[in-house]
Each structure stands twice: as structure tokens, then as C-alpha cells.
Amino acid sequence: MKKNFSTLINKNTITSLAIGGFDGMHAAHQELFKRLDENGAILSIESGYATLTPKKYRQEYSKYPIYYYVLDEIKHLEGNKFIELLKQEYPKLKKIVVGFDFCFGKNRGYCIEQLKDIFDGEVIVVDEFQIDNISVHSRTIREYITNGDLKTANKLLNKEYKIYGTQIKGQGLGSKSFVPTINLKVEDFLLPQVGVYITKTILNEIEYNSITFLGHRVTTDGSYAIETHILDEDIINDDYEIEIKFCKKLRDNKKFESFEKLKMQILNDIEETKEYFINKK
Questions:
Q1: What is the dihedral of CA 74, 77, 107, 30, to 10 degrees?
Q2: Which domain holds residue 177?
Q3: pTM for this one?
Q4: Which of 7, 143, 154, 278 is deepest in the core (most CB within 10 A)?
Q5: Are 138 and 21 a contacting pair, CB within 8 Å?
Q6: In a domain, 98, yes or no
Q7: Within this chain, do residues 107 and 195 fall inside the same structural domain, yes or no?
Q8: Do both 118 and 204 map to the same domain?
């Protein structure tokens, strides 16, 4: 993950700001960032509901420094007071870039027209952005992810959906009876619908083709698990943070009559995953 370098940039040099929630840093958000000048920055309003790119993970997807306001700390401000706050923090601010549905201030009572009236610089409003006739919004992308449609979600994100996790101890059955897996604990990120996915796993900044399972181990101990198997590699992981990129859902989670049938299905899943990556080349 890229270092959050917003603290290294002098706010006195910032001349343009893109303002929004920016959960996902998706294709529509990138349209706003294109309107920033070379001394631009991103102002992310933290509502507490960001699950596509929670916390400071947004910085990975932009060359511009990202600053954060916590919504609960500013939502009481009237519109003019909010703009005054921006002018105080960014004294050279000349341009604000927002989406077509941007509202701000107390009770979200101020929108585009009020922003143009209050702010004495340039206001650029970016129209609703669509891909394949689908309007690109964070809420829409969340729906596709929770329904397991990663192909569409990734198209709207303009990248592969990625989560971060830390390695935890698993059942120990994988390396003994099935295939070796890395078990993960994931917090804050939205998880795709339960099932088996074609993925890429990043360890120590190296990306490996992989297959990942999310769901309850209904054939074994019934516990919930997130586990990934690296294809054709014998990996000893010593990285604290693990990244998983989701490419495509292979199948739903289901219960098998025996360990042997489960193992056969896992091997079939692995072969299908290998074919996917061969055909992608």
C-alpha cells in the first residue's frame, strides 16, 4: 500500500480540492481527480461507512495527497462556515471539484448552487458517470460485490476489488489432507458473497495467482473462514498484511458428502483457476 503522504504536503501549496466520500476510489471518482491541477488534493469526508477502501487505504489509488474530515465533526457547520474552514486550511484554494449530487453543511442543506454562491473560486461539477449504461456509485458497487458479481464490480471500480487481512491459524487440514492455504482475518472491508473465487494474492509485494474461499466450512468444522491457496508455489509467508484481489466467482459454497469429494472439487476448482489465468495471458 502506498504511504499516506498527505502529512508531507504543505497545505499552503494546495490550489484545488476534490471533495467527497470517495469510498472505493472508483471510476467516477477518478473523473473528479482528472479535473485537479498539479497542486491538487483530495478531501475525503469520513462517514464511518466506508468498506470498499476503509481508513487510509484510499491513498493507494491516487497520486494526489488525501486529507480526511470526520463527518460527525463538521456536519453541524452551516455552508459558509464549512467554506471558511477550507479557506483557512487551504489559503491558496482556487478550485473545488465535486460530483453532480454533492451536498454539504448542516442537514446537507447546501448543494451545488449554494457552493457556487459561497465559494469565490472556480467550482467544477462532474456529471453522473456511467459504464455500460450503469451509473457508477459506491453503493452500486457494494451490491455487485455482495452478490458475487466481481466482474461488474471490477469494471465500475476500474480495478480488481481488493481486501487486506492478517494471517491467522487455520484448521491445519489443508496442508495435511487437501491443499495448503493461508487463513486470514479481515476487518473493515466489505467481503464478497460466500463462495470460491479466482483471486490474486499479494505477499511481500509479490503478486501470485490464487484461489480463495469465503464462508462456513460446512463439510468440516462449520466455522467461518477466509482462506487462499497460492497456485503452483510453495510459499512461506512472513508478511503481516496480506492483500487479496478478486477476479471472478467460481462457485457457491456447498456441503460435500465426504472429504474425498471435497478434495476432488478443490482440485477441479484449482484446474479451472489455472485455465482462467492461462486464457488471460
A1: -50
A2: 161-280
A3: 0.90
A4: 154
A5: yes
A6: yes
A7: no
A8: no
Cα(162)–Cα(156) distance, integer angstroms: 13
What CA–CA distance (Å, rounded) separates 58 from 215?
Answer: 27
Indicate whether 168 belongs to any domain: yes
Which cell goes with 137? 456509485
Q: Based on the fold, state whether residues 188 and 267 are members of the same structural domain.
A: yes
Task: Determine how β-strand 224-230 pairs with β-strand 206-216.
Answer: antiparallel
Q: What are the backbone angles phi and psi of residue 233, rounded to the nearest 5°? A: -140, 140
124 and 12, same structural domain? Answer: yes
Strands (E), the chain: 16-20, 40-46, 66-70, 95-99, 122-126, 130-131, 134-135, 161-168, 182-185, 195-203, 206-216, 224-230, 241-251
In a domain, 276, yes or no: yes
CATH code of the domain covering residue 216:
2.40.30.30
> pLDDT (tens digit, 0 to 9) for every residue of the chain, 281 residues total?
555 556 568 899 999 999 999 999 999 999 999 999 999 999 999 998 999 999 889 999 999 999 999 999 999 999 999 999 999 999 999 999 999 999 999 999 999 999 999 999 999 999 999 999 999 999 999 999 999 999 999 999 999 999 999 998 865 554 445 688 899 999 999 999 999 999 999 998 899 999 999 998 766 666 889 999 999 877 766 667 899 999 999 999 887 777 788 888 889 999 999 999 998 86
Look at residue 239 and give its three-state secondary structure.
coil
Q: Do 165 and 276 sit in the same domain of this protein?
A: yes
Same domain for 168 and 266, yes or no, is yes
13 within some domain: yes
What's the domain count of the chain? 2
